[in-house]
Amino acid sequence: xxxxxxxxxxxxxxxxxxxxxxxxxxxxxxxxxxxxxxxxxxxxxxxxxxxxxxxxxxxxxxxxxxxxxxxxxxxxxxxxxxxxxxxxxxxxxxxxxxxxxxxxxxxxxxxxxxxxxxxxxxxxxxxxxxxxxxxxxxxxxxxxxxxxxxxxxx
Length: 154
Hints:
mainly alpha, two-stranded antiparallel sheet, 58% helix
């Protein structure tokens, strides 16, 4: 199973925008420093999130902001914004089984039934996790970092 790392970078960006967007102009260069990802990739991710209506981006001067409350943004929406066909790519079935073999002739149908159930379960799970849940987990993680100073140079 595979969900692109771009989805985790997108979540990283959204947490950053949520936490620092009020006090800093959140640009692709700033997000690139935080994520360790190329600024061009960040701009593509931001563009996808903007098309989905999750963020707004000011042209010219730059700066990204959330467009919706955290509890209205789901992990499913984020993943779908970044990779619209991610659900169909999650689980693959080998493409050329032998039609001479009874198992080969039926494997796509048989696995398709099970894999569809897995996709439905995953879809429900991704839709149940909101950005609010993720930001709450992030903030709890910060509280457990008592000995590590916050990164102020971003």
